[in-house]
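User: hey, got a sec? need NUDIX domain-containing protein folded
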Amino acid sequence: MDERRGGAGLGTTSLGPDWKVGPDGVRRRRAARVLVLDGAGRALLVRGHDVDQPERSWWFTVGGGIDAGESEVDAALRELREEAGLVLTAADLEGPVLTRSALFDFYAETCQQDEVFFVARVPGGHEPHDGGWTDLERDVLDEMRWLSAAELRAQPFEVFPISLADLIEALAGGWDGTVRHLGIQHDE
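Assistant: Yep! Here you go:
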């Protein structure tokens, strides 16, 4: 068995210690995600893949698991710093603007991630870097890029959440204070 992967059994996983097995056998965690928008209405997005399905690739927002004892806002700020090298404060975040539960397969396991999304505006943009990526992220993340909603719609890869391009357009001009709840979405 590949030690890096740790196996797909209930006791071990390559996903990390924040993924807990629920009563239905599905690994679950809470996550904070950030839609980073520049002054041109473009979003800083990450493209990644699953090592078990290297031919499949998708775009998504910066973010990740909420550590034990960490608030959603603190997790969002930590993920921005680790994944994109972007240092912001709680005052720089809007929201939460969106919630959803994503159900997907990753590392040969079925996972459910309960996500809360924030918006961060960086009018002058930001040059992202991968200096804070973990070994797992280096295995599965391919690139970070600024994309407009139109560019996101035109590219050939999957997008999660599926409505991300619409969300970019809706939030580029400002947030109306309404939290959108998408419910459970199957990211497959």
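Quick note: Helices lie at 72-84, 135-140, 149-154, 164-172. Let me know if you need anything else on NUDIX domain-containing protein.
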